[in-house]
Amino acid sequence: MFAILWNLIAAPATFLGAVPAIEKGNTVAWAALLFPFVGASLLIWALHLTMRWRRFGTSQLAVSGDTVALGGWLRGTIAARNLPEDASPHLTLTCINRVVTGTGKDRSVWEKILWQEEQTVPREGLAPGPEGPAIPVAFRLPDNAPATRSEDPDNKIVWRLQAHASIPGVDYKEQFEIPVAAPPAGRGAAADERDPFAPATVAEAPPVATLERPLDARVRVEPGPEGGLRFTLPASGHAKAGITVGLFTILFGGFTGLLVFLIRRGMASDAFVFVPLIILAGFAFVSSILVAVVLQVLFKRTIVDATPGGLVVTARVLGLERARRIARDEIRDITLSVGMQAGTTPYYDLAVGRTTGPAARITAMLRNKREAEWLAAEITKALR
Fold it and tell me: Which of 93, 119, 251, 342 has the most CB atoms within 10 Å of its CB?
């Protein structure tokens, strides 16, 4: 309905207002062509959702047990209509901090990924359902993630389960919000609570479990120049992240250039010339930050030298280099941390927990969570 209403307004405004203005040489009127473009995109999106609903209907998630709690399991079944027997659904369980800022027209929503796990259900793993194959769900929840929180509508913790299957015609896609409770008393511990009898540093900790290196791992491992091992994390080259940030960079850069053009043409009155200059400064500042992010996403390379003496982390971007050292007796543990995200896709960095002070971050930008877990385990072993 919103897409139809938008097009009913945008079409007459374009052909009766913007087009005649452009024919008369009004260059600013070109910006009005954005509205029919957005309207067409909304209409295509609405038609796609309608086709998906007509094919699959509304899916139902049946959760096993009375309560889903941290440290336990989320088990259940997704029943979908007309799901092909040869489908291989991809499931994603995500813990999200949903923050709302501003009010009215200035209202904006930001969803920060705190934890995520993925799995693909093979076609032979599908279960029989009332209207076709059903999708089994089985996720082990972490102990140290936050439970569902909704007391403050502007700062909520949401657990979301998404199911997606690539199918000829219209893909299957559905999502559910799962209420997740805190772990029962006596089980699990917060991430910042440590056993007083636990080893104080990573050097004194028990042996680290050996994780298998993923076949598609991009991290290169070789002997270090000072002993130990050197882990080279190449420039990410992640197309999705680069395109996402690049589009925002082009958008802000384009508005910055437009403001410069309008100011130079004297379209701001002398009495209020400071207003567009302030706006220009803001857009230029954001554009410069986005350019720096694009350079980091596409060209930053990180080298980690791990020896029994500690870590040396070197970051290189287009010939510029910065190194920092972390002594072994300062290191408590090495864990995963969600760095940047592109939509609902997280990229993992490493967090070096210290015995005192805040954790140090190693920018890895690894899309594969298994590779990030393997890297953290290998660096931990190299420190001993």
Answer: 93
Q: Where are the domains of the chain?
A: 2-56, 61-181, 202-236+300-382, 239-298
What whole-number distance in Å separates Cα of residue 75 and Cα of residue 178?
A: 11
Q: Is 274 exposed, middle or buried (0-12, 13-18, 19+ CB in 10 A)?
A: exposed
According to DSSP, residue 18 is labeled I
Question: Cα separations (Å) of 284 from 23, 241, 246, 252?
Answer: 32, 22, 15, 8
pTM confidence score: 0.68
- Alpha-carbon distance of 362 to 139, in angstroms, equals 28
Q: Is the dihedral of CA 216, 220, 367, 63 positive or negative?
A: positive
SS3 324: strand
As a whole number of angstroms, the distance between CA 4 and CA 284 comes to 36
pLDDT in single tens digits along all 384 residues of the chain: 555 665 556 666 565 565 566 556 555 555 565 666 666 666 666 776 677 667 777 888 999 888 899 999 999 999 888 788 888 999 999 999 999 988 777 788 889 999 999 999 998 888 887 777 889 999 999 988 999 999 998 999 999 999 998 888 788 889 999 999 998 876 554 444 444 334 555 555 556 567 888 888 889 999 998 889 999 988 765 555 666 677 778 877 877 777 677 666 655 445 445 556 777 788 788 888 888 777 777 778 899 999 999 999 998 888 788 999 999 999 999 999 998 887 788 989 999 999 988 999 998 888 899 999 999 999 999 998
The residue with tokens 């007309």 is 82
Q: Is 202-236+300-382 in CATH node 2.30.29?
A: yes
In this structure, which topology does domain 61-181 adopt according to CATH? Immunoglobulin-like (2.60.40)
Cβ distance 335 to 350 under 8 Å?
Answer: yes
Question: In terms of Cα–Cα distance, which of 68, 116, 76 is closest to 96?
Answer: 116
